[in-house]
Amino acid sequence: MKNLLEKFFGKSAKGIAVEGKLMTGYAEVAGREVCVFGTCDGTYIDNAAALRLAAHVIDCIENHRKSPIVMLVDSAGQEPNRTAEMLGLASYFGHLLSCLQLARQNGHKLITVATGKAIGGAFICYGMFGDRIDALDSASVGLMPIEAMSAVTKIPASTLEKLSKTMPSLEFGAKPFALLGGVEEVWSEKDDFATKLASAIASATTDDNRAALGKKRGGRKLALDVRNRVLAETAK
Questions:
Q1: Structural domain tally of the chain?
Q2: Do residues 153 and 234 share a domain?
Q3: Which of 33, 51, 116, 134 could join 74 via S-S bond, C-beta 3.0 to 4.6 A?
Q4: Which of 55-59, 86-90, 142-146, 213-217 is least confident?
Q5: Are residues 160 and 230 in the same domain?
Q6: What range does the domain containing 71 cover?
Q7: What is this structure's pTM?
Q8: Nearest by Cα to 42 from 78, 93, 85, 3
Q9: 111 near 135, Cβ under 8 Å?
Q10: How many CB atoms lie within 10 A of CB 95?
């Protein structure tokens, strides 16, 4: 993890603490301070982790005015146990999202980079909330594994596997998710991550262009048109 952080933040990566499989801290990108938090080693996010990440966002809002927030995602999803659910895991995720929205309203740009696994609830609870989402080409990005999707829909996994070859929404990976518009840009391992991150921060906007990107790239052909029709009807 240390080597990856240094690729993003250079010597300033020493300001990021990695405890367990969570990281929080402050670093620099192109000479500008950024708030950093995220997960590593494909960990699951439970109630305590969500609270810890939310507390770091609050610290950034209170003590680091308008610093961009860089969210690094390497998580296999939400903690898969009954205790976490009984304690209201979704509410903890909601709290984290509320803190991120408060940060956005206070002028903090939100930048997501999927560095490893970016799956399910963990990706939704903070990664997908970014103003801009990028991913390493080696990242495994998706919302539900085919095996889990089969269990929910009762469609055989073999059928879903076959469909995934032509339907980006069923295929895991940075590039298929980019076709859907969910990832702005896929970064190669040969890229200069620090330069890429600086560019991502500079270009990030609160305008949601994911449906437009999905249509342009051919991964989501109807989403933009449907959204525009709904907006047109509500404007009447």
A1: 2
A2: no
A3: 116
A4: 142-146
A5: no
A6: 2-205
A7: 0.91
A8: 78
A9: no
A10: 19
Please indicate, yes or no, whether residues 119 and 236 belong to a single structural domain of this protein: no
Clarify whether residues 228 and 139 are in a common domain. no
Q: Report the amino acid identity of residue 161.
A: E
How many CA atoms lie within 13 Å of 58's alpha carbon, on the beta-carbon side?
Answer: 10
Instruction: Give the Cα separation of 181 and 124 in Å (integer).
Output: 15
21 and 79 part of one domain = yes
pLDDT at 66: 96
> On the CB side of 10, how many CA atoms lie within 13 Å of its CA?
13
**Alpha-carbon 215 to chain mean position:** 21
Q: What is the total residue count of the chain?
A: 236
Question: Highest mean pLDDT: which of 52-56, 88-92, 209-213?
Answer: 52-56
In terms of C-beta density within 10 A (0-12 exposed, 13-18 middle, 19 or more buried), how is residue 59 classed?
Answer: middle
Whether 129 and 220 map to the same domain: the answer is: no
